[in-house]
Give the backbone structure.
Amino acid sequence: MSKPNELADWQDHLEKKLPQPILVRVYQETRSTQDIAKPFAPKMALIIADQQTAGRGRLGRSWSSTPGASVLMSVVWPNLGKTLTHDRVSLLSGLAVARAVENVLPASKARLKWPNDVILDDCKLAGVLIEAMSSAYVIGIGLNVTRKAITDPGIAQASTCLEEHGPTMDRLHVIEILVTELIQALSDSKTDEMLVQWRDRAALGQTQTFEQAGQQITGEILDLDPDHGLIVRRDTGEIVTLPAATTSVIK
């Protein structure tokens, strides 16, 4: 279990080291970093917890955690000019996490399972949750650092963690790299460049089954529209676009 003094210096360190001014708050335990983060909008903020008692993933799924085993954080990103769509934030956030993983594990190649699971060796390493507010997006990131982060036996075989792919990781170092990558991605989003990076990590050409608005859709992944969602060709030949906010992968 993490000790309180282990977390005590995180706030000052991050506020000094991150490439852009950002309010940082660090908690030993909270229900959900997403809920703590929302009242700060539209001010840019970073909320970190050592443990969550009521964390959640996409589409209302629960996210449990063990102290000292994960990166659990939420970033408030202002959208006062309304220039960012939900799908673009989803794309950029997933790419930022993938790049951060490759930074701390230089020998590894991170993959993206649309919309925002980060995969190593066909196992889930991290997940991203995007929640839209009137003036900001709240970007939640959960990343497994040690095996103790994986508390659900039902998903253990399909999950992985940083320590299984490299030396022991300092969570503060991982957080600093994650947030730096996220700030860079959201501050300077070049559409052509980010699509190249996404395609390099995505399951293009594979056939998958999705659930969207209560309907199951099976088709081949063709590409991504950065503002509208995944482009899929159904078995019937129909081409559909599936928005990240309301779609999940079944298999």
Remarks:
- The longest strand covers residues 215-225.
- The mean pLDDT is 90.
- The radius of gyration is 17 Å.
- Residues 86-104 form the longest helix (19 residues).
